[in-house]
Amino acid sequence: MKKVLLSSAAALILSGAAFAESKTVAEVLESGKNVRTNYISPKNTDGVQDSLRVPIQIKDKRYVVSWTFIIENEKGETIRTIGYKEKRDGKLTLKEFFKSLITPKKSVDIPKEIVWNGVMDNGEFAPDGTYQYYLTATDNNDNKKTSSKNRVVVDNTPPEIALAQPSQGDKIFGEGAKTVFSVNQSGSKEDSWTGTFTNAKGEVVFKKSWTDSEPLTFDWNGTDNDGLPVADGVYKYEVSATDKAGNKSAPATIANIIYSAEKPATNIVLSGGKYFSPKGNGDIKTISFDVKIPVPDPKSGNKLVKWSVEIFDDKGTVYRRFDGTDNPPSTITWDGKDDSGNEVTEGNAYQATVNAKYLNGYETAPVNSPLFTLDNTPPKIELQASSKVFSPDGDGNLDNMEIAQKVEKSETGAPVENWKGTIANARGETIREFDFGAFPPEKFVWDGYDAQNQLAENGDYSYTISATDKAGNSAQQKIAFKLDTVPTELSIALNKTAFNPNRPAEIRILPKASTDIVSYSLSICDADTGKEVWADSRKGDSRIQLPVVNWDGKANTGDENGMQCKDGTYIALLDTVSASGNEAHAKSQKFVIDTVPPAIELNVPYSVFSPATDSKKTAVPVSAKSSAEESWTARVYNDKNESVRTYTWKGSVESFSFDGRDASGNLLADGTYSIAFSSEDAAGNKATETIPNIVIDNRETKSYVTAESDAFSPNGNGSLDTQKFTIRNSLNEGIESWKFTVETTEGTVAKTWSDKTDGKIPQSIVWDGKGDDGNTVADNAYIGKLSIVYEKGNVIDTATGVFISCVTPPKLSVKTKPKYFSPDNDGEDDDLFISLKRENEIVPIKDWSLKIYAPDPKDPEKKGPLFWTTGGKSSLAEQIIWDGRSNSGELVQSAMDYPYAFTVTDTLGMTSTVEGKIEIDILVVKVGNRLKMAVPSIIFRSDAADFGVRVVDASGKVVKSGITPAQAATNERVLKRIAEILNKFKSYEVTIEGHANSQSGTRIEEEQDTTQYGPGLLKLSKQRAEFVKSQLKSYGVKGDRLNTAGKGGTEPIVNRTDSENNWKNRRVEFILDKKK
Description:
six-stranded mixed beta sheet; 1076 residues; Immunoglobulin-like; mainly beta; 4 helices; single chain
């Protein structure tokens, strides 16, 4: 519950010791020593400092017979007097009551505090200004003393503010030339003004204050109070002030401010490879970085104040730091030494990170380079030959030189892209070369043939394998052996060991004989089954030349004659007879028919991704299924057909992910790429497959959504019936899907918009307040949430600030206490406590009022003229204390019902009013030493002295004139209450005086019956007094106490020409006099 704040003044102290025999009140009454000025704002009735409360401390109050609290204006004029209450306890006997009037030794009631509500004696609120208040008191010896004067300032004027509303375009800042948001404001000079920027969650991110000043125009650069940049998003500015009197400035806000910062983007990439070898045997002694540290344009007012590049290992240990305050380098080279000049450990994974700080407080997020490695160790391989001599003569014994190759793999060192093997003769001449790629075979086999497929001559040979890793480290191993063939008469050479006859392609069979032959038989057989598939022979009487056969892979014998031979391993056999009759035999190497090309199947789930952001697609997963081959290669090409990345496999292609980086780990530029896979087997069969149109898109994705109104009321009244959401995206391309929901702050979805078809997001969405079920949503606080999914994997979630949807007008209630209000200064029920309550506080209050009307004497169901009113803006006073006086100082009338209307209008324009009545008790006022009750609410039949009730027939026609049943019931209730009061004062004689409202003010109307005015007023008022007497007797008042008098219109209390109020002259007064 909201606390009711009041201005509490210094205590006025009364010391009981002052009333001892030797002292007077003059020695007792004193004000608080620490005098201070109090401030109140009674007119706004917002429950904050609406009243001045002055505590009074009494140690002994037996001898105080009267006191008065006086408030004076700056001219010294008394504008309000508050006095002590008269004791008229109903339980006192009449003797006790009169004794209280004439016995000074009995102290009057002294309240614990005196409350001034800012109203003057004339019923009006005191105008703004400085006032003085003080207390006077009188003791039983008529000693009178006045306290020193204290000050109270009445200030009903709230702080003034004028806040310029920028255009929507001017609400967006942070980029380009719009680096600040300008707040243009002016206002009144106050003790303190406060301006705050809050984010969409309502959290204050920046606060600015002005002391003893007006609110000044200023620029906000998007940083918090610690100087750190705030997050990109939607913000709200609000400026307010509360003065010393508790007046608050009118709401002044700028909503939907969008901060989209141009944050300088640093970067660091490897300039070249990611391996180096400061102490190795190669040339790559250092590693270089291309560094990007933006320097702001001097015109922007921002500048670079600090930068650094640090090199650290995988444990976070920093070894080298480069830094400065300006002029950052574009390239940095590191030699592998720490800041002390010591060489760092090789084999570790290192990274470089770049940081920068700017004058506006922005610090870049650390950006790391790709991982790189320092490797001083060359590659290692071991060779071991199967024998020291081989003889490739086709006899099946030591026909090949087999060399085992064992590579020592390094998990952390620089890899080798290609191992190279060479065969050299004794003269050092290279006769054959082999490129193994990244994976040298575990067993190298040489068949003794040179690069031209000619059998090498006998002699000493060597095999050397060498490589240079990516760090520049080189290594080689060499092994020697001998080629030694027994001189043979016959041999068969092949130009290839595998072929595909369908390409078309042929294998060339080259038989050779060292003697003259007269016949030969050449055949090709399946090496596994021995089945002959092709044959050629010739026999002559003289020397025959052996033919060179270009075999196309077709059979020319057997049941497969003319058919293509199946894939498999084959061998050529040659038998000859020389001129001397000697027979010779020879066979070739095995060779392969292979018509099946390498095969590969590729699949990617998507082709657009964003490797540099917090995307859910930072790489493209490539699923591959391929045949096992000697090698597979995949190359990544950019849109210029330049190879930027290469992958190799031995055997089958493994599934992998393309991370959008080059071989050094540097991020590739945005664009379209392709990945081309290829392999060629020994038979020359080739396979190529390409994954096209892989798109790298690292463009920034930002989105903002704002709600136009803080609250709306979809009730169809034409005012704020809809809520408009505005959507702004930095990237409107490549949207896969989007969804916008309106949810309660607890997360319950009320309304949904979405699209997964064309990927187009509307620039605005208008909500009519209806949920997905078509019904108007419940009154509540809501948030608009936007979710965007991009094809490249970025997911953006953004939300509006909280706003209100409400169709229910304010629900109001009024409670008053006491039930019967009697402001007659008797110390009992003299103040009416009015409790105002609004149940549904979801929408702020715009303004409210409480109006109390005078009763309509002709119709108690209707309102009369406005009697008293109060009200306020935004805040509602939960309790009001009313003294029963009008705004002009008039006291309420006895036994009357005063209608009231409590009205609240919220900021959505919805208005509610609750009405009721305040029942006024019989007021017993003291006039000198007499008590008097004036009751205008007793209604008589026109020109008669009775309560005759009118008679109405079935058609509603009045057949007998009289008062209404409601008036008759009121008369009965009032007279019974008067009887109850009179019976409390049984020692009083009561004179019942009838008073009339004279129309003319003439003696004729008073004394004579006329057709113009009716019965004479003196006679009629006397008769009515007698009728009241008879009624009171029937209610238990003894008749011997009751006297009557008819005053007619001779004693008016309101000018008879005042048509709105002259009804008050028509009354019955009860005068109480002490019996003699």
